[in-house]
Amino acid sequence: MSQKLAGVVALITGASAGIGKASALALASEGARLVLTARRQGRLEELVEQVRAAGGDAVFVIGDAREEETAKQAVQAAVKHFGTLNILINNTGVGNYKNLVDTSAEDYDEMMDTNVRSTFLFTRHAVPVMQAQKSGTILMISSMAGIYGFAGEAVYCATKFAQVGFAQALDKELRPHGIKVGVICPGGVKTEFALGKGRTEESVAQSGMLDPEDVASAVLLACTQSPRSRIIEVQMRTMDESLT
What we know:
alpha/beta, 7-stranded parallel β-sheet, single chain, globular, Rossmann fold, 16% strand
């Protein structure tokens, strides 16, 4: 079995389902040791058991990614249990697709805090560890909504554009310290994230959206580059996308 990430420690936010869970399994399959964080303890316990049953190693931290204490505890857990932190996957996210006049200030705050504040907090506390060892990889899971604006998604797009800009700026700021920064921008993905916005589980399952494992493959690719190369941005769309 290939072990491209043997000895590497990865922290994944929003790891209890969807892209976060798929990415955890993909990285663990290559030997990465994992720190997993989310709010649903039962889901994280099941994922840790799955990783360990396959011969890997993982721990979890329960908490809200919007809270600074969660970020601090997760980074501390990586150092305490595994001695370092090599990879950070900022995956936590929320969408609320409404026209501007139907979007409340509370909707705005929830999306900004979940998508942007969490990305800032985890990156802010992971970077000192990576700077000290002069290496690391940081990935933001953004969206095609961070590349193009879509009607009815103005605030969501704003948060995802923010993640892309954050990654681009940090690529320049942190590269002199040996730290790689990139962003993954998938289109629609068959996850819980896609539900609750006028869609049903059946319609999502039967759609031509990407699978979480498709995105996890891109995450793994970005995390297994040689020390001399980095992936700055990946844009992903389904093969079922309309040509018009």
